[in-house]
Each structure stands twice: as structure tokens, then as C-alpha cells.
Amino acid sequence: MKMFKLREGKKFNMGEGDTRRILSPEEGVKNLTLNYAKFQARQEFVQHVHKHSEDVIVVLKGRGEIKVEGKNYPIEEGDVIYVPPGEKHGTIAGDQDMILFSCQAPPDPELYGR
Fold first, then answer.
1. For residue 14, what are the β-bridge partners?
2. CATH topology classification for 12-98
């Protein structure tokens, strides 16, 4: 067993906001990744694609939008979003702060193989 602290996650840049890798191959995790993201109002997590990874996004706080393949969908606290491999996606906070967790499986070699 290992324990991790959100505040000790490795920061990474995917647009605006505080984005951190909590679990990834760097920590010895082989089959998934877990990221934490906190956005201030109107901040954006840029659109991107995981060619070989499924992505699950959990909205812990706030509301905003997820942009998938160029179309925006409303999201709010308590929503769980599944994004299949190959689908371009990103999130945008609404008028208040938004906090998310995202989990990819398997780890995207283009993001975590560096």
C-alpha cells in the first residue's frame, strides 16, 4: 500500500488552473493514472486526446462545461463523465471554482512516457 497527498502531486500544465498528477507511472502505478485539477471561474483545461486510454472525469465541486469533439455539454458537482479513447475533450469552469478528478487507464504513453 502507498498513500499520496493531493498537495504533493506533481504539477503539470494543461492550460489554466492547478493541475497535478497524483498517481502515474512515475510513482510506480502501472495500469492507471489519477489527476487532480482545480480551476478558477472560466479557466480551461485544454482539449486533448488519449489515443489508447479511457478517461473518467469526476466533478467534485462547481459546474462548467466539457467540450467534446467541438461541442459543449454542461457538467456539475456529482457528474461522472466517461471519455473513450480517441475522443478530443477538455473542460471549462463556469462562474465559480471547479474541482475535478480524472483517471486514465491504461496510462497514456504520450503524456506519461516522457
1. none
2. Jelly Rolls (2.60.120)
